Amino acid sequence: MGRIVIMLGPPGAGKGTQAARLSVQLDLVHVSTGDLFRENLGRETPLGLKAREYMDKGALVPDELVLEMLEQRLTLDDCREGCLLDGFPRTQPQAEALERLVAERGWSVSAYNLEVPDGVLVERLSGRRVCRSDGSHIQHAVFAPPRVEGRCDTCGGELYQRDDDNEEVVGKRLEVYHRQTAPLLEFYSARGVLSAVDGNRAPETVLADLQRLAGEVA
Ligand code: AMP
């Protein structure tokens, strides 16, 4: 049976980093709506240009656009057994739409909430450097400085700072998270599919917990 694994948590909690690793372990494709928007923006598609208006301000892209993009992504062959979702759902209507898709396909759902205090998130996001070749390769100006200035330690790709990782937009993204996305914790908790994971630890330690939890419900 197919399955959907959902990575929940505020921006900077480590969803992308953990999703990239866990997806390999679970043999599920990693689907990040933020990466999909950034890819569209890189190609200057109408969707990417529209999404940018919201992303640059730290606001959420409207549900209709997100849902259309995600539904299309889920029809691709690599999602026939499900996927690991990172950055989706972020609103109640998105979560409800996902419930319908999952029910149609008879997939199981498990959700993991990476818990990290806001103060730590601001430090993580404002120093974050992302690899242009692979958005899941993440470094940090202070906590994980690259060996070669401006270059990704994993693949040598060019490191850059996301436009929405500046301090002003970070504050807005955290506020949006608490107002619009955090209520989903109650949604998944009520369905009995949510586990909390302390995300304020070394990445390998967090991954070990996720593997154990995801393995138990598989
Ligand atoms: P992320 O890479 O997950 O931090 O997402 C970057 C930005 O893309 C967010 O701040 C939103 O503007 C937009 N975005 C990504 N996923 C969603 C979503 N599920 N719903 C609405 N907006 C999204």
What is this structure, in a nutshell?
The protein has 218 residues and is α/β, with parallel strands linked by helices.
Write structural notes for this entry.
- This protein has helices at 15-26, 33-42, 46-55, 63-74, 92-105, 118-127, 167-181, 184-190, 203-217, and strands at 3-8, 29-32, 82-86, 108-115, 128-131, 138-140, 159-160, 194-198.
- It has 218 residues and is an alpha/beta fold.
- It has a single domain (3-117, 167-217), classed as Rossmann fold, CATH 3.40.50.300.
- A five-stranded parallel beta sheet has the order 2-3-1-4-8.
- A hairpin with a 6-residue loop joins strand 5 (128-131) and strand 6 (138-140).
- It is globular and about 50 Å long.
- The structure holds adenosine monophosphate.
- The site of adenosine monophosphate (AMP) has 17 residues, from helix 2 and helix 3.
Sequence of secondary-structure elements: EHEHHHEHEHEEEHHEH
Q: How would you characterize the largest beta sheet?
A: 5 strands, parallel
| CATH third-level topology | Rossmann fold
Pairing-aware structural class of the strands and helices? alpha/beta
Shape: globular
How do the strands line up in the largest sheet?
2-3-1-4-8
Estimate the mean pLDDT confidence.
96
Q: What is the CATH C-level name?
A: Alpha Beta
Rounded radius of gyration (Å)? 16 Å
Helix content: 40-55%
Strand content: 15-25%
Question: What would you say the CATH architecture is?
Answer: 3-Layer(aba) Sandwich
The name of the CATH superfamily reads P-loop containing nucleotide triphosphate hydrolases
